[in-house]
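User:
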Amino acid sequence: MKAPLKAMQFIKKNVHYLIVGAIVAGLLNVYLTGGWKVPKTVILSVMMFLVILPVMINLKIDEVFKHLKEPKVLFLSLVVNFTVSPLIAYVLGKIFFANHPELFVALTILSFIPTSAMTAAWTSLSGGKVETAMFLIPANLLFAAFVAVPFILPKVIGSQMTISSFTFIKSILIVFFIPLLVGLVIRTLLIKKFGVETFNREIKPELSGISSIGIVILSFLVLSMSRTKLLFSHPDIVPVIVIPLIIYYVSMLIFSTLYAKLLVAKKILKSEEAIVVAFASAVRHLNITLAIILITFPVEKAALMVLFVVLGFIIQIPLLGFYVQHYAKDFVANHQKRELQKATA
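Assistant: Predicted structure:
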């Protein structure tokens, strides 16, 4: 195996540790040097080319149209992602972020951007239906990008910050639509040159590694900005961010689990489909959340919001990994076993 591929696998496997290291390095840089004035163009270049573009190359929009004849699972997923998730975020924001409107906004944006490539990964590890995951990921993101974020989100955060729908539409065009088109072109060219099989086997798995590198670099750059000095004068802000963030994720996992159980008990979905709905609800697309924040708000003013999302990376990956190992696998396997026993009885 070539050294670059080994390095990429190491990064993907240890991304949450590397993010912690990038945060520490950035804060150490601020402590020793007073921080940098990082140009927004640098931040946006890293974000667009290393973080967002690889995601868009992997995004299969055609999966949405293939599965539109199965609207039930999509509707069940959208209900949780765009009613329950924002409601939990809104309540937590009102309780914990009364004095920090920017953190209220960050949590609300996070709650409106569901799923990620990890939804498919967790589904696969749990024995769930990966085809359903590959359909729900782009479908949820499209709804978020063209309905929820530009038209619903401004009304939800209106009491904390006045941001027009046009501002979010502009952000979505930059963060989602343009990279989506570029990603589609690059994907088509790569498949044309190397073939579908080689693309899926050798190229596609490494794109998430490139995105992980981008997140690590972005974490260091953003935490190295001079405004981050406020963390040294107000270190108490870290638990203020972490506690509600953990509560949000745990609440979403608990609700998603009960929801999946109900769907199976009522024979609305099979267990391998219900667990996909659970993951599509609990997992947040932190890359796109971060991109929207950086595009919509001035970089220097968004320091706390960015820190909020960066800490989300540290919390989300191990928490979902624990959930897979200690619940999701057994949930799918046990229900499949019962179905098999009924069929052979």
